[in-house]
Write a structure and sequence with these properties.
single chain, 74% helix, mainly alpha
């Protein structure tokens, strides 16, 4: 029996809590049973955390902004 996995777009929206409830419920049910989609979600979450950390590290601090003037 073939299993239909969560699309990348739906997984991304779910992770960002922007998936409509009508779609989120079946996604959550699928995630309870599908290790492949659980792993994809974990990878996506790790990527988002890394990007947020990189963005935070690249933002100038108040001290560096003052030094620029």
């Amino acid at each position: 029996m073939a299993t239909s996995h969560i699309t990348g777009d739906d997984l991304e929206l779910y992770a960002m809590e922007r998936l409509p409830e009508s779609v989120a419920a079946p996604v959550e049910e699928h995630l309870l049973l599908c290790e492949e989609c659980q792993a994809r979600l974990a990878d996506f979450d790790a990527y988002v955390r890394a990007m947020r950390a990189a963005m935070a590290a690249s933002r100038p601090t108040a001290a560096t902004r003052r030094a620029a003037f």
